[in-house]
Task: structure prediction
Amino acid sequence: MNKTMRKSFLAVVSIAAVATIASCGEQETTTSKYLNVSINTGVESLDTQVATDGTSFEVMANYIEGLYRVDGDGNAVLGMAKSVDKSTDGKTYTFTIRDDAYWYTSDGKQYAPVTAQDFVFGWQRGDSPELQSEYQFMFTDVALVKNAADVYAGTKALSELGITATDDKTLKVEIDSPVSFFEKLMYFPTFYPVNQKFFESVGGTDGYGTSPEKSLSNGPFMLESYAPSAVSFSLKKNSGYYDASKVAIDEVNYKVYQEDSTAYLAYKNGDLDIAPISGELVDSNKSSSEFHSVEAGYLWYISLNLQDTAHPEIANEDFRKAINLAIDRQAICDTLLKDGSVAAEYAVPEQLATGPDGKDYRETASTYDYTEGGTKTAKDYMDAAKKTLGKSTFSLALECDNEASSVAEMIQAQIQSTFPEITITLNPKVKKQRVADMQNGDFEICLTRWGPDYADPMTYLGMWKTGNSNNYGLWSNAKYDQLIDDCTDGAYATDTTARWAHLKEAEDIVMDEAVIIPVYQKGDSYLISDSTTGIEFHSVALNRVFRNVTKK
Amino acid sequence: MTKYILKRIGMAILTLIVILFLLFILLKLMPGSPFNDEKLSVDARAALYAKYGLDQPIYVQFFKYLINVIQGDFGVSYNISKNTAITVLIGNRLWTSIRIGFQAVTFGAIVGFLLGTVAAIKHNTIWDSLCTLISVIGVSIPSYVFAMFLIYYVAFKGGVFPLSYSESDPFGSSILPTLSLSMFTIASIARFTRSEMLEILDSDYMLLAESKGMYGAKLIFRHAIRNTLIPVITVLAPLIVGLMTGSLVVEKLFSIPGIGSLLVTAIQSNDYNVVIALSFIYSLMYIVIMLVVDILYGVIDPRIRVAKEA
Result:
């Protein structure tokens, strides 16, 4: 009996001992530079015309480059294109592709030069009715590529899409109307090139990008190890990249850490060079040199269903402004979120887009002060609303995602303490349910967020045009619609300065009528090891760019 | 015996088809859509539905799915890994979950059984109290807490094992997850073994064996353990399936590429094919394990074998 116990104990101990010794066997050569990063969710797809999520975009941008790429300040700089010629009416772009741009297979061998045809093929498949890409709207609604809508509908052939290769290195793009931020769209992965011959040789959509052997690289890195839904994968430096001499990292190792707490421990252990943090960790690390806070593009706001006949108060502008003033955004950011999020009293986030004046949009845009310099209070608005409506008590249901319920709770508490006559009921739900309900108009007020697709205020302002599928509150203003149209493809489309000014005018209308109640702009806080410098953060398209990272 | 097995297999196939159909219906009733991007317009979503045949009536979809399954095609993932074949997606992860689950079950069952046996034999001594304590703790503490404890004190502070799972060190980095998963098994099996063993130690045939001169390990091994095994295996069977199918919490904490977290993510994002395929695998595992357990009964207990053959 005792012998059995002793034997089992020894067995367990020896297994543990062997395992410990086995796990000590890994070493890294000191000459190679590794960058270890974490991501919160897995990659959904490494197919440039299929992927829709930020993680996939970030990974793809490491090893594929488009006509333009993005620099540390958020400017679009020439990438695969060595020069561009824009017509005077702004509707035709002629790009010349670099001579030293080549595609490389994952074993480091040169496959083919990057040609204009690669872009044609990529864009055509992105807009094709066959692929049904979820980002197809970028071609029709955002980049305004000629014939994009007809090609997608199937009434015109793929070859009629407004992109042609006049020769191997010359690419002509035709758009219906000038797009002032066109260059910035070009670093969006949906517009990346695809080598048709390779694509078809690895099985087309089913195979492309599903493993290193089935992917090509023309960017600073190339895939080294990857499988669909892998929890860890890596990229290695592409020594054939035209700017390889400026790439100082030899290997980028990605790992999925779904829990921030384990990512933090991994960071402290030296397994990660960058880890996301929030809450108490932010408080305790704020003064450290490793602490970095960046503003993400997400704007969290309360969308109001103006067509809700059961709750006529929602349609009352004074009522909405009263609610707006009852919310203490600073408290939400400082006591609850603590992750670098900032209070937002605007419809277009900060650090989203730079204007023709070289300044961030928000720097020169209006500030919206419903208190009118302190002369009006929330109560004043509420009294006016009560008078018009003939009602003195109100009851509203606030919808939100499960993940956002703590913010919603704070908002509920703030509104109810300022206005005891309002009862707010919280309705947290699974995100897909919340989105479905909003799309069906089945909500009263809802805490929602919007992330930018491209670095221009239009990605937000366009939402509130009459008939836009994301205009859940069903607000409609003819003057606003006219401004949006003029700025998109009408009177102001070519004049960048006039357009910028009129975008601000449009925002004024949205804010003056309190169409939405902005709450906060998401911030992300990170710990970055002191030996790592050069990680570039962006609030649009590519979350992080590792091209220019150096490690001591 | 063969007839019995064949009959069971036939029933299993029927059960699986019914399960598949029920799953289909449940998933279609679930709110939401596999194409969750807020940016998708209603028209674009409808076009995507048409592309994947999701706009057809349920029985048409089910029939097509059944035909494809027979040919080995389980469809593709809609959003976890867009357009990836389910067989590829799950294949990568299934073996990891099964391996770690198997490790946890084996370790948990052996340690639990030993612990329970010791407690029963040393009834009312310090060993008994220790076993009870471990059992209560093991059953009460959520695996999340236990896992975090191990990660922080053993891996992070102690540096004994890696912080998270890594393919380059499949065994070493799976030790902590195995321990976290096995805690519940150890506790349940220990308690169960202890109570079964106590009953058996009191029975008349044990008294007879003792009076005939048997004592110590020989007595326990020849007579007590075999009798304890039957009820223990009954309890173990569902535990095995539960562990092999992966634990969401442990997988998330250790960054293990397993099927537990895959299933939960798939349900939350309406990735129909993934949910159906994984549920199908779970059901299959459960049916197979129950069949194996039934056969084992016959092997362990001659009385059952004779009764079946009669």
